[in-house]
């Protein structure tokens, strides 16, 4: 089981990957979103909250339990799945389709985010 620190490191690596989005205009557009973000790690019952802004994820707080407020982009998964997704060992579409990963966002945001996933 991934630790809270390993999950924080995975989010940092994801942020770095977003910042390096190639010059594909659709990927740059998705990376340039400015939205509140929460990532609930189910097995740790911990939520990272912050913003997706300027092509980076900035984690501003770590909370015990589920998210307290509804972020514009909401992720939920096990810690091991977060680490595997960021490391490229787990396919996002398959994980989402099987229910291992939950992603909730507005329709337009989902369309823009799909270029990154």
TrEMBL record:
Q: Can you give the residue ranges of the SCP2 domain?
A: 20-104
- Where would one find coiled-coil regions in this protein? none
Q: Which Pfam families has this protein been placed in?
A: SCP2
Top-rank taxon: Bacteria
| Name assigned to this protein | SCP2 sterol-binding domain-containing protein
Q: Which organism is it from?
A: Streptomyces albipurpureus
């Amino acid at each position: 089981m991934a630790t809270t620190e390993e999950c924080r490191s995975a989010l940092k690596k994801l942020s770095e990957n977003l910042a390096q989005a190639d010059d594909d205009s659709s990927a740059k557009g998705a990376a340039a979103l400015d939205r509140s973000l929460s990532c609930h790690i189910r097995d740790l019952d911990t939520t990272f909250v912050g913003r997706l802004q300027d092509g980076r994820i900035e984690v501003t707080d770590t909370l015990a339990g589920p998210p307290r407020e509804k972020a514009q982009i909401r992720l939920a998964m096990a810690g091991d799945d977060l680490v595997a997704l960021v490391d490229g060992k787990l396919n996002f579409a398959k994980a989402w389709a099987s229910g291992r990963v939950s992603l909730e966002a507005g329709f337009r945001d989902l369309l823009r985010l799909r270029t990154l996933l």
